[in-house]
Amino acid sequence: MRYWDDIAIGDRNAFGHYQVTRDEVLDFARRYDPQPFHLSDEEAAKTHFGRLAASGWHTTAMTMAMLVANMQAGEPQAGLGAAGIDELRWLKPVYPGDVLRCETVVEDTRPSSSRPDMGSTRTRMTVFNQDDVRVMSFVAIGLWRRRPAEGAPAVPS
Amino acid sequence: MRYWDDIAIGDRNAFGHYQVTRDEVLDFARRYDPQPFHLSDEEAAKTHFGRLAASGWHTTAMTMAMLVANMQAGEPQAGLGAAGIDELRWLKPVYPGDVLRCETVVEDTRPSSSRPDMGSTRTRMTVFNQDDVRVMSFVAIGLWRRRPAEGAPAVPS
Asked: Strand, helix or coil at B52?
């Protein structure tokens, strides 16, 4: 099990391979972001997108899909989810046909001041397309359990 | 048309009525965030969620749906989209059966230093549930066109 104590500033990871399809871009936009430039090439051509582009919130969702697949493929983690996100930036449009991938680096780790059994991390996520262009970046604030002290009972007696 | 020049610090808005359904929570989670606590009540009961809860990225997507519906119902806006998001925090779980709504307040406005025809805004978005509990908050960085100078040609001659 990977605990907060096993995570160090500078730890890096690279994973993910997400093929962005036109159908999925349209499905997401119809339900959650029905702005004209997310629904048609013609309308997108009138904007800086140039052609049909994915909703920025679709890009965050696709990134989460890559992150969860990577988590579930590896060592079990004592992660308690994310408290939030800082500095989310949509740097370049994401288009149908793009293939996305992720790189992460741990920028900070802190023990909790109020909960001695917990800690937090700040991890920079960068998403690239098939041309190695950075399309999105954010910092995820992760919450983790700390490794139980040696000899501590696994279950309170 | 509402331009950057028409937006002032302190401007407030309230809108949205989004019914969170179990089917939609499961659909989103299966595709984008298939962690056990977003897929079953039984697994969620083992976590601080207590019962099936929406992916945080689903909550951002539902919020975008409310925002776009509100934009499309009102005066046309000279908005150019969002450059990014700061200080996104998932404050409380969102459950099937919840009804979400939004409140916004403009926290800052700045003319662009490089593009005299553009400006940016920082708008705090707060999402509440039916019990007026804050479930999510973030700051959206919006990009806008500025109002063309009086007498300026609408189309370059």
From this structure: coil
Tens of pLDDT, residues A124-157: 999 999 999 999 999 999 999 999 987 665 554 4
| ipTM score | 0.93
Compute the distance between CA of residue A122 and CA of residue A79 in angstroms, rounded to an integer.
13
Q: Tell me the HSE value of A40 on the side-chain side, using a 13 A CA sphere.
A: 4
- Rounded CA-CA distance B140/B92 in Å is 20
To the nearest whole angstrom, how far is the Cα of A81 from the nearest Cα of chain B? Answer: 10
The whole-model pTM stands at 0.94
Residue keyed to tokens 């920079």 = A124
* CB neighbour list of residue A13: distance below 8 Å, 6 or more residues apart: A70, A102, A103, A104, A105
User: Within the 3-32 window of chain B, which residues sit less than 8 Å (CB to CB) from chain A?
Assistant: 28, 31-32
For residue B154, give how far its alpha carbon lies from the nearest alpha carbon of chain A (Å): 16
